[in-house]
Automatic annotation (TrEMBL):
SUPFAM superfamilies, sorted: Protein kinase-like (PK-like)
Domain of life: Eukaryota
Keywords assigned by UniProt, alphabetized: ATP-binding, Kinase, Nucleotide-binding, Serine/threonine-protein kinase, Transferase
One Pfam family recorded for the sequence: Pkinase
SMART domains the UniProt entry points to: S_TKc
UniProt protein name: Protein kinase domain-containing protein
Length: 502
């Protein structure tokens, strides 16, 4: 069977598992479909791939942290690296634990935040009673009535409330316990970013902080729904390029403002990208959740966590960090919107590295030499060159059985190939736009942080400026729709004169 026919078979047979129901706002906006945005074009999931092609049922084993595996002993000429590492999704989610000794592993693996994690299981024991629906809570300036709880994380819950003074809806993040270090860190960052204009810089508006008894509360503007929830409401139907562009542009504006302040967000992912009002302002967004944010001056002494699916190579390898960490995450978010699923695995660090090497190539010698955790994934061959360990070598050395994905992204040759074959192009102009998209995507997903594109450079990239489309708006419905989406999200009309050479 020809490669092209095999892709066609896979795409026709693809289906998406329905996500678990969540308490959230339902979208009343009828999503405008881009010309390359048909549900039947979705790429195959891991389940579909195994069902349709091999008819085999893969039962992945979660790669658990190792208590006895050797640490990397490679010396670095670039100074100490940040004590920061990626965290697999199941480590920061109470669903689907597969650990033999959960509390021992939590204490060893989560370090500084172990008390917050354990609090999930001990919530309510000798602690401040958590407020319930219809409860009125008071700050120094006003009172709020809790209408509903709309989200929950490791540290706390988010409540939809009404300000009884103004009648406005607000969102209040109520911590589950009073951990002074964590709360003061987030509060300090919020006070700094409050200087930014929330609408112009696309960052959530922080209103005030207070305590309900001993529980700290942070008050924010009320927003619509997250990008993640919107995608789930669409059954993970991919977004078109004309929908991806305004979201990406607004993220870049937010990150440029944070970079100028010396702040790394560290937790950029679809859950933390909120739509403001998807009905009246389609794809107008705000960046939220500064709980893991770091100042650039702190990265060598702070310990933090990051979602593995959106973690940069320098985080996984244990290299010195910079704001480039957030630009890698922008690339991951762009891919998530384009394919309707995460580009990189989130269950197992070895599977993550295996996918990165397959799609983007191997990190260079200098990166591997300098990484504090490089020896976990790479080994010197007989030619004294670094190569990725086999799953067997990884398991033998660490004692952990790694997951090895069988997904759409392992079927293609590289990232560019994945974008180009899916979906089929329908016009020359659309193909040119896709070429611009994949170029920016590759610039964001550079393995080297030093070579990765910056927010200001990305804002001048032709995919964002639409320099290849602006002259076609009078003759092309595709170009005209691209401009309408940018203006609807208040991104403004692109200026061809500011286009960069990318």
């Amino acid at each position: 069977m020809k490669m092209e026919e095999m892709y066609g078979t896979l795409f026709q047979g693809s289906s998406w598992d329905s996500p678990a129901d969540r308490s959230r706002h339902k979208l009343s906006y009828s999503d405008k479909r881009d010309q390359d945005n048909s549900p039947e074009s979705a790429p195959p999931t891991e389940k579909t791939f195994t069902d349709d092609v091999t008819d085999a049922r893969l039962v992945p084993t979660v790669c658990e942290p190792c208590d006895h595996g050797p640490a990397a002993s490679i010396s670095s000429d670039h100074g100490p690296a940040a004590s920061i590492r990626p965290v697999a999704a199941d480590e920061v989610n109470t669903r689907g634990f597969r650990r033999k000794k959960p509390f021992k592993r939590i204490r060893k693996f989560l370090g500084r935040i172990k008390k917050q994690f354990i609090s999930i299981f001990t919530c309510g024991r000798n602690k401040q009673a958590f407020p319930k629906r219809e409860k009125v809570i008071h700050s120094d300036t006003t009172s709020y009535r809790i209408m509903d709880f709309i989200g929950e994380g490791v540290y706390g819950k988010v409540a939809q409330c009404v300000d009884l003074t103004t009648g406005e809806d607000v969102a209040i993040k109520i911590y589950k316990e009073n951990d002074e270090e964590i709360i003061q860190s987030e509060l300090a960052t919020l006070e700094e970013v409050r200087a930014l204009h929330h609408d112009r810089h696309n960052i959530v508006k922080f209103i005030e902080s207070f305590h309900f008894g001993e529980l700290p509360c942070l008050v924010f503007e009320m927003l619509d729904t997250s990008l993640c929830d919107m995608m789930e409401d669409r059954d993970h139907t991919r977004l078109g390029l004309n929908e991806i562009r305004p979201v990406t542009q607004q993220l870049l504006v937010a990150l440029e403002a944070l970079k100028n302040m010396g702040i790394i967000h560290m937790d950029l992912k679809p859950d933390n990208i909120m739509l403001v009002d998807h009905k009246d302002q389609p794809f107008k967004i705000r960046l939220i959740d500064f709980g893991l944010a770091l100042r650039l001056s702190q990265v060598e002494v702070e310990e933090a966590i990051q979602n593995l699916a959106y973690a940069a190579p320098e985080v996984v390898l244990g290299l010195r960090l910079s704001e480039a960490v957030d630009m890698w995450a922008v690339g991951c978010v762009m891919a998530y919107m384009y394919f309707g699923m995460d580009l990189f695995p989130f269950d197992c660090p070895y599977d993550w590295m295996n996918t990165v090497v397959h799609l983007l190539g191997c990190p260079d010698k200098n990166q591997i030499n300098a990484g504090k955790r490089s020896a976990m994934y790479f080994i010197l061959d007989e030619k004294d060159e670094w190569r990725l360990k086999s799953p067997e070598e990884f398991e033998e050395e660490t004692g952990d059985t790694p997951t090895v994905s069988m997904s759409f992204f392992h079927l293609v040759d590289n990232l560019e190939n994945a974008v180009e074959i899916f979906p089929k192009r329908k016009s020359d102009l659309e193909h040119e736009d896709r070429t611009a998209f994949v170029d920016l995507l590759q610039c964001c997903l550079q393995l080297s942080a030093e070579q990765r594109i910056s927010p200001s450079e990305a804002l001048r990239h032709r995919f964002i400026t639409m320099s290849h489309l602006v002259d076609e708006t009078d003759t092309s419905s595709y170009a005209d729709a691209a401009l309408e989406f940018m203006e609807a999200s208040s991104c403004g009309r692109p200026d061809k004169a500011h286009d960069s050479s990318h």
